Amino acid sequence: MKSVKFGIVVFPGSNCDHDAYYALNKILGFEVNFLWHKDKNLKESNVIILPGGFSYGDYLRTGAIARFSPIMNSVIEFANKGGIVIGICNGFQILLEAGLLPGVLLKNISPIFVCKDVYLTIENNNSNFTRGIMDKTVLKIPIAHGEGNYFVNDDTLNELKYNNQIVFKYCSEKGQVSENNNPNGSVENIAGIVNKNGNVLGMMPHPERSCDPLLNKTDGQLIFHAIVNNIFN
Amino acid sequence: MKRLYKVRVLIKRRASILDPQGKAVEIGAKHLGLTNIQNTRIDKLIEFDVNVNDKSTAENEVNLYCKNLLSNPIMEDYQYTLEEVK
To answer: What is the torsional sign of CA A30, A55, A203, B25?
Structure first.
């Protein structure tokens, strides 16, 4: 077992918590703990994962109620001190509602719950989550969401670009970013961003579902290995 | 003595933000033969009671609730009515 400890928060309605546990522990061999949303203790985790799912039934707005779970105070404090936090899908929605990342995720532009493999370009290969992944790598990672249409106003979008906060964009298999490869209407094909300090990542695609060689796709491993190599080795 | 106020909050997505739900419902309208319907938008109406000493305290609580939880100021605006229950 490697020494990095991952903590996966379990909200009522999370449903990718066990996928993340399986990928990180059974496939990649890291120590992993579940963190119940009503607790405050992060169990000395080095990396916090807010997993996908439908926390609180997606009532009101996705992520709007989960951000008030007791564990989120600890997660926000951890993030503000530079701790590594990753929000995947519903976890991304929670990070936005909690104000740890800018913007909102609207309903997909088409009335379809999109569940398929997509391709991602790495826009910022100097982030904690991507540094070390070979240049021009196109990642194949699945998405599964009805509300993944990332939206920010023009000022915030310019700020994201200026600070190099856009990490992943939807693209073609060959890495071409165009409206044809935008699965949900996200502004400028944005699939994942980091905060200004670079320690909080939110992404709609599911890297944990792209780790098991049995599934014939393992690009999610590149992201988890990058985190461990860049921050803890 | 405490007073009870009935509150109705209307939360509307900004006009600049697309409403795919409204668009999808409008497809249903067309299938129903209602070809004159246009610009359907689906917003939220939320009702609740506030039990406090006076109207200004009630308004204060309503605004806190709306700003911090019921609406997302990045994409939505809210308005409310507040009525004392006699």
So the answer is: positive
Put simply, the answer to whether A106 touches B18 (Cβ < 8 Å) is yes
Q: What are phi and psi of A143, to 5 degrees?
A: -120, 160
Complex confidence, ipTM: 0.85
The yes-or-no answer on residue A89 being catalytic is: yes
Instruction: Write down the H helix ranges in A58-182.
Output: 70-80, 90-97, 154-162
Give the tens place of pLDDT for each residue, A39-49: 999 999 999 99
Structure confidence by residue, pLDDT tens digits, B55-71? 999 999 999 999 999 99
d(CA A190, CA A192): 6
pTM value surpassing 0.90: yes
Establish whether A208 is a catalytic residue: yes
Confirm whether A147 is a catalytic residue: no
CA pair distance A226, A130, nearest whole angstrom: 6
Q: Report the C-alpha gap between A62 and A140 in whole angstroms.
A: 25
* B24 → closest Cβ in A68, A103, A111: A111
Percent of chain B surpassing pLDDT 70: 100
- Going along chain A from its start, the domains and CATH numbers come out as 5-231 (3.40.50.880)
Write the residue in A64, A97, A107 that is nearest to B21 by C-beta. Answer: A107
The model's pLDDT over A197-231, given as tens digits with 9 standing for 90+, comes to 999 999 999 999 999 999 999 999 999 999 999 98
